[in-house]
Amino acid sequence: MMTKSIEIVKATALLKKLKEMKTLPVVAARLTKMIADDNSTLRDFEAVIKVDPTLVMRLLRLVNSPFYGLRTKVKSIPEAVAYIGMDNLRNLIVVDALKNLFSSRQDSDIFSRTRLWMHCVSVAICSQMIAERIFGFKGEDAFLCGIVHDIGIIIEDQIVPEEFAKVCKAYNPKENRSIVEYEKEVLGTDHTIIGALLVNDWGLPREVHKGVNKHHDTFKSVDPKSLPAIIQTSEYLVSRLNYNALDGMKSVLSPPLMIQIRDNIKEYKTLAEDLPDEITKAEDIYKLERG
Questions:
Q1: Which of 4, 47, 58, 153 has a CB 3.0–4.6 Å from the CB of 191, allowing a cystine?
Q2: Residue 29 in domain
Q3: What is the pLDDT of residues 241-283, one digit of tens each?
């Protein structure tokens, strides 16, 4: 069996071939640093954001969307930033960078980036709902973890498309094996390791790194409030709505998380009933724009 260190070495080698993705775009990188700086003012953010007209448009579009349900329209950058908050601004920046990456290649008969993107969006929305509704804490980090949890798959498709196509062709839901097993057999690493390295390079929170790295693990014991557990639970729930990363992909839930759902079945049922509407509301905001 391949050791974890070798898998990390192989994942690092793949990322080195994608130099332009080692860091966030210039504007996004500046904003991320500013968010971590308590001395940054709303006017500082406005000065950076207005340099990118597309980001301005998406920021105003987000804050004026049904997600926030404002009665009066927000028209200025400082007002929008003040309203959505720093964590949501950070998430918007990451979503913006990811959409460009997902849109950089058309879908094929073997693999659909559009399907994977909607899977990530759905997991992000569901994760935020679980954090806020089930556990009662702010869900911005859960959303962020959901939106980036499968970023490693796109890196594989971008850098080693022929090998990744072999993974997709080999994957068989009837075998009851995780996609990461197929990846390791063909690539010598998997998307959770690649993704964790990338989000670490991007300077995202440590818990988000753990969520990306561990969301396919089978847990014998786990804190249901942790991001790895929330992402795994979200994948399980959205798979019931057919928002899978690959066509027909099955999502396995660790035993402690099955118990968590069983013990809180009413809350999870209500969440599952509301989830399709929440995803539908988000489709227009987060849809991919092909060139």
A1: 153
A2: no
A3: 999 998 888 888 999 999 999 999 999 999 999 999 999 888 7
